[in-house]
Amino acid sequence: MSSNTRKGCFLFKRSWTTEEIQLVLTILAIFGGILVGFVVRVQEPSEKTIHLIGFPGEIFMNMLKMMILPLIASSLISGLSQLDAKQSGRMSAYAFAYYALTTSVAVLTGIALVLVIHPGDASIKSDKFMSADNEQHVSAFEKFLDLIRNMFPDNIVQASFQQTQTDYVIKLIANNDNTTRESLDVIAKKVDGMNVLGFIVFCIVFGVVIGQVGEKAQVLANFFTALDLVITKIVIIIMWYSPIGIASLIAAKILGILNIVQTAKMLGMYMFTVILGLGVHLFVTIPLIYFAVSRKNPYKFMKGLVQAALTALGTASSAATLPITFHCLEMNNKVDPRITKFVLPVGATINMDGTALYEAVASVFIAQINGIELSFGQVATVSLTATLASIGAASIPSAGLVTMLIVLTAVGLPTSDISLIIAVDWLLDRLRTCVNVLGDGFGCGCVHERCRRDLIDSEPQHIPSIVVNGDGTFEKVTEVV
Fold first, then answer.
1. 102 or 121, greater pLDDT
2. Which residues are CB-contacts of 347 (< 8 A; sequence separation ≥ 6)?
3. Dist CA 406 CA 214 (whole Å)
4. How many CB atoms lie within 10 A of CB 221?
5. Which of 15, 293, 294, 450: disulfide with 446, CB 3.0–4.6 Å?
6. CA–CA separation, 244 vs 433, rounded Å?
């Protein structure tokens, strides 16, 4: 048999790994969803048909959301219980330094591109913004206070399904002369939505204290470690269903757009600016930071996160993608589980590079279509507010549209113009979520490189020794020192 024949036989007999099969199925699901969406559009489907096409995707999102709380609790508590306070403190310092750097650079990248390209054309809007909106919107300062409030929930069970949100309420107050006047009160109320930030803070404290208590709390540490293993197994099962769910979500979104061609013509330059900014941040900025920290090929590391990136494109949710990101980092990129269990849940909640860049670009774009030239101080305000707003953005689909109200209000821009960009947000939301997820993954990689030696030094050493039993026999045991 010739060498070429033997080589061909070898390639034919090569078995695919589970990760490779799932990756190929996910890629096929994305293209399949796009194809189904455009083919069915020609038939002008009814609302019921669109709902049925998107139903498998709805089930997929429900399964992923179901895993968020148990995954965060088990991963954070089991990971931090194995670390001492010094190690967890060092990991926190590196992680938050990475978050601050990448989010700031993302905002500056978006601001620079939108000012240079100037995608905002005043002809897009027929009516120009002349004065401030009559509606009252909560200030950026109050939103920042909401962030602090949600970090320390008064009820940890309630935090699993509700969070605190500040709102303005107009009240009528009677004067002494029998007349009434309006009073604007600021109230903090509970709204539906998982308070992931508060849950994370509680789990961090819980895990660190278990590690400090030591042997007496080992039962709790073992419980959450076992729970983490069970949740991981469930996630692997869900991953086999993910191609169907992703294809369903994408097809349903395409079918829900009223006029794709007209929307693309009107907002084409805006979409180009956002996508270019996300591309620069993802393929240039983050890899350079990773290379500076690790001196390793960042694109090889990125290759290991492809499955998580594709899932982010389908789900448009950093939190929903969290189980897949864990799997990719630990199985493909060999990142220490003690790092992923701490850095990744926190990053998925507060490290939103893509969202920060998008909000900066969208805010300046809205100013441009209204013929408003922002001053240097207003641009600086947009940069700072977009950074802070992205930290408080929920890791759910289209959360950026909600937090963008803060940015627009901070510089006095019309919040009603958000309706102009909603038509293309379904696509940009998926792209910025992909950047958010990969940014979190690279953050784990950077912390891993900086803390790897400390973690290796802290691993217990197993020393074999011989002991004498009561009956005079010898037994070989292993001591952990």
1. 102
2. 95, 99, 439, 440, 443, 444
3. 44
4. 20
5. 293
6. 20
Place of tokens 């941040």: 281
Q: Which amino acid is at 323?
A: P
Q: How many residues are recorded in the chain?
A: 481
Give pLDDT tens digits for 347-385: 887 888 998 899 899 989 988 888 888 888 888 888 887
Q: Write out pLDDT tens, residues 253-290.
A: 888 776 677 767 778 899 999 999 999 999 999 999 99
CA 230, 233, 239, 244 dihedral sign is negative
* Helix, strand, coil % over all residues of the chain, rounded to 5: 75, 10, 20
- Residue with tokens 């309006």, as numbered in its chain: 182
Backbone Cα Rg of the chain: 26
Taking the C-alpha atoms of residue 255 and residue 267, their distance in angstroms, rounded to an integer, is 19
- Between CA 356 and CA 354 the distance in angstroms is 6
Q: Which of 446, 411, 349 is nearest to 98 (CA)?
A: 446
**Which CA distances in Å does 307 have to 63, 126, 473?**
17, 43, 55
Whose structure tokens read 């419980």?
223
Residue ranges of E strands in 249-361 = none
Which of 348, 352, 63, 97 lies closest to 200, judged by CA? 348
Cα–Cα distance list, 256 to 30, 263, 284, 371 (Å)? 17, 13, 34, 31
Residue of 436, 426, 449 whose CA lies nearest to 391: 436
C-alpha span between 193 and 119 (Å, rounded)? 34
Distance CA 373, CA 414 (A): 14
Q: Are 78 and 221 in contact (CB under 8 A)?
A: yes
pLDDT of 177: 66
Angle among Cα 97, 206, 456 to the nearest 5 degrees reads 55
Closest CA to 189 of 214, 215, 213, 163: 163
Q: Please name every residue paired with 465 in a beta bridge, in sequence order, or none if there are none.
A: 477
